[in-house]
Amino acid sequence: MKTINKIIIREFKFSLGRFLSVSALLTLGVFVLIGLNVTGPNMRKTSQKEYELSNLADARISSTIPISENTQSYLTNLKEIKKIEFSFTTDTLLENTSKPLRVESLPDTLSKIKITEGRQPHNKSEIILSDNLKNDFKLNEKIKVQSPKSSQSLEIKNSELKVVGFATSSEYLKKDKIGQTGAGNGVLDGYSYVVKDAFKDNRPNFARIDLKNLKGRAYSEEYEKKSSDIVASLQKNLNKQNSSRIEESRKEIDDQIKTANDQINTGKNNLNIAQEQVNNGLNQINAAKIELQNSQNELNQNIEKAESLQQANTLEILKQKQLILNDQNQEILSKERKLSEENELVEQNKLKIQKLEDKVNQAQESKNNLSNISLLIANRNDYNDGYNNYGEDTERIDALGKTFPILFFLIAILVSFTTMRRMVEEKRVEMGTLRALGYSKSHVMREFLLYSTSAALVGTVIGSILGLIALPQIIFKAYSANFTFEKLILDLHPWYILLGLLISLFSTVLASWLAARKELKELPALLMIPKPPKDGSRILLERITPIWKRMSFSHKVTARNLLRYKSRMFMTIIGVAGATALMITGFGIRESLNSIVEKQFGSITKYDVIAVYNTRDTKKNVTEVKNKVKNNKDIAKYTDVYFYSVYSKQNGDSVRQNISLIVPSDASSFDKYTSLRDYQTDQQLNLNSTGAVISEKLSKVENVKPGDNLTILDSFGKSHNIKVSAITKMYAGHYIYMNQSYYKSVYGEIEPNNSYLISLKDSSNKSVNKFSIDFNSLDSSISTIQSEEVKSTIKNILNNLNNLILVVVVAASLLSMVVLYTLININVSERIRELSTLKVLGFYPKEVLMYIYREVNILTGFGILFGLGIGYIFHGYVMSVLPPASSMVAPGLSWINIFTSIFLTIIFSLVIMMIMNCKIQKVDMLEALKSVD
User: Fold this and answer.
1) 3-state helix vs strand vs coil in the chain, percent to 5
2) Alpha carbon of 279 to those of 284, 349, 350: distances in Å?
3) pLDDT of residue 325
4) Which of 108, 294, 377, 824 has the fewest CB within 10 Å, making it most exposed?
5) Which residues have a Cβ under 8 Å from the Cβ of 443 and sit 6 or more positions away?
6) CB 401, CB 36: distance < 8 Å
7) What is the pLDDT of residue 310?
8) End-to-end Cα spacing for the chain
9) pLDDT at 497
């Protein structure tokens, strides 16, 4: 037994390079297998703990008008709702800036905030800000907020508020791109919380809810599916309640209009009577004035006549008449003043009637806007962008975990299997000697089993440690830069460790056991004799005489050896091909995702912003919006469209696909704003009356093709069937395009255009933001959707993947080096006598090196060629599952990617060549050429 142990120790000592290379192969395989497969679950567990600590609401109900007590009671009593908390929210602008700030009432028990500094607000003059604003404001600093629209009043009581703390919320997980808003530039700068008393209205406008009968944790299929089904069911109930609210509002408005009209009619009748009385009085006064004037004129003549005749008695009588006329004049003036007062009352009544008429007009406009009233419910995926984005990020990591480890381990298994089998063959003579000395087969086999088991254990342990700790931390650090999660929860995941160990043992122990078992079947005497080399045979190239005659001796030997040792040839080609394919895929992932921005916004989307407004607002406000666009000197071009958000959802799917429905007013010129090209032929598509054009990724998600029907739903859950007439190339977002005629055939009526697709003369962020701010300040504006924001979202995904792709590329590069080293080492080791013979015969060191490396270079070249094909296929598969659900990439690889992968493989090969050259030069020729007999 001591002899066996010494042999085992010596084997570890003298074949340390082989041991380390096999261990390194298995380490890389286990590292990638465990790392990519546990990171997603670890990230989900981290978020699940955060959601549970904050008691994140399962769903959120929002209303466009305050929620009445009647509706609150109705919602509270719904059987699917376990708990409901009514709250307040409003979007404001930080005073003298265009930065939107969302103000909400402090949550009680659902979606509790996490204070990072300071304390909660205690009164209506205090506020706690989101943690991302910590660099802009300080504790105890006072901030001022204002209404986003000048015609609207602020919905909170105090415009000046004292900052008492900073906090994070599980409802706002992203540090940037917090959410969309109709204020400022359309993107929230931050969020904040105040006490409920800080709001002017005592009626809430949204509610957080906890649902009954939910199972599983966040992101689990069980939870998401059940949550989605309950929300869909609740929306039907909310639609009924909303219809009741609308009818109540309509009835209330009708009553107000009827009462006002009655008052107007009564007032007008009374006004007409009063006006007639005033007019009659004025006529009478005018007649009296004329009569009085005539009497005064006659009296004046008589007085003059009496004075000239000096008739004193007559003058006395005439003076008496003058006094009477003066009294009559005073009486007329008194009546005139009275009529003036009555006339003022008439004018006041006219103003009152005018106000009533204005009130009726406003009520009528409110009645026309009743269709805008909504009561909607959304689950976490729909009301919480951060929740949805984080879940998709973990799914992308899962997708890599289901693909890359397969190729990594296939290569590792192949090379490890070959290495261990070759090790047993090298020990053939030693095995025969031990058997001849009386050692049992199990004792002889012990060396190989211990060696292979050790390599498997070392590879598994190191790979597991790196995979369980290092890789998850690297990936989480990249993703947490955009999310509020602070520390990753690490789990042991024993099943993945066990799987890695079993695969490692399969790669080494099974290979060595099979090879040793085969060899030990022979007699010890035969084992002590080296296997004779394979018989030489003519190759195809020898039959092509003109070429064969012109080849040198070294080249002829190389050609024969390549085809003589077919297993070695295939192992080298497959190993290099696999490593090259992994590098191509790694480099190609980032490159392909980068192409989304370039292709989408370089040749398809040609507008800078979508400006959406309320067509049911007052004529004055709508006209103001239209003039803002038509008379804007910063706009290069624009077009009217109808823009509406819909969604699709397959049976059994827990996540809805949000879709932008666009109906252009002028379909013939729509290509100036969005290029619609057939996804297969690249020919231009025209909108027609027979169906809709949908984006390519939507067609893949919903599994539809031209001629099929697609069911879409509006925000109220009402479904409509559309026929797919064509599929257009689209790399970012889900879109449906229709002309007005087909829209009418689907929805029964043509909606008025409610949006503009706008291209600015200056497409910089500054200019787009300036336009968005100006547009959103208008009363009828709803929101602006910037193309730059979509670009930014995609770039964030790319940035998150950077470190992950870097790890994959580095791992693939290391795998390439280890594979080349292992296979070349095997090649050199099994041909050491051959190389020694060449050195004895006087071959120069360079010739001896190239004797081996000429074969290696040729096989590496073939491996690279096969690797390009495998990489193209593997990259295509990975990119079909890796991008977000609403994005896709164009197939294909760039030459830069291909050349980079080829260059690195060649560099690795040259590095290994230098290492092997040192080994070859150190060979003891005499020792190697000694006869084993």
Assistant:
1) 60, 15, 25
2) 9, 16, 16
3) 66
4) 294
5) 1, 4, 434
6) yes
7) 65
8) 26
9) 92
User: Could you give the 3-state DSSP secondary structure of residue 932?
Assistant: coil
pLDDT number for residue 933? 47
Q: pLDDT value at position 12?
A: 73
Q: What is the pTM (predicted TM-score) of this model?
A: 0.80
Q: Report how far residue 424's alpha carbon sits from residue 435's, in angstroms, rounded to the nearest whole number.
A: 14
Beta-strand ranges (E) seen in 507-634 are 609-613
Q: Are 592 and 786 in contact (CB under 8 A)?
A: no
| Cα gap 624→389, rounded to integer Å | 37
Report CA torsion sign: 410, 411, 416, 422: positive
- Single-letter code of the amino acid located at 18: R
Maximum Cα–Cα distance across the chain: 184
Match 């291909």 to its residue by tokens: 898
User: Which one-letter DSSP state was computed for residue 764?
Assistant: S
**30 Cα distance to chain centroid:** 30
Residue that has been written with the tokens 């800080």 in this structure = 198
Whether 737 and 693 have beta carbons less than 8 Å apart is answered as yes
Asked if 249 and 68 count as a contact pair (C-beta separation under 8 A), the reply is no
User: d(Cα 588, Cα 871) in Å, to the nearest integer?
Assistant: 9
Residue with tokens 């995979």: 467
What are the per-10-residue average pLDDT scores of the chain (933 residues)? 73 77 86 90 92 92 89 91 93 84 92 92 92 89 87 85 92 83 83 92 92 88 89 88 83 78 74 70 70 69 67 68 70 70 71 75 71 85 86 84 82 80 77 78 81 89 92 84 85 90 87 81 76 65 75 74 72 82 82 76 86 84 87 88 86 76 88 88 88 90 88 84 91 89 88 89 85 85 82 70 74 79 74 72 74 80 88 82 74 79 84 76 62 49
Look up residue 259 and give its two tokens.
């009462």
**Beta-carbon contacts of residue 346 (< 8 Å; ≥ 6 apart):** 271, 274, 275, 278
Q: Cα(763)–Cα(915) distance, rounded to whole angstroms?
A: 55
Q: Rounded to an integer, what distance in angstroms lies between the CA atom of residue 508 and that of residue 502? A: 10
For 283, residues 6+ apart whose C-beta sits below 8 A from its C-beta are none
What are residue 789's phi and psi, to 5 degrees?
Answer: -70, -40
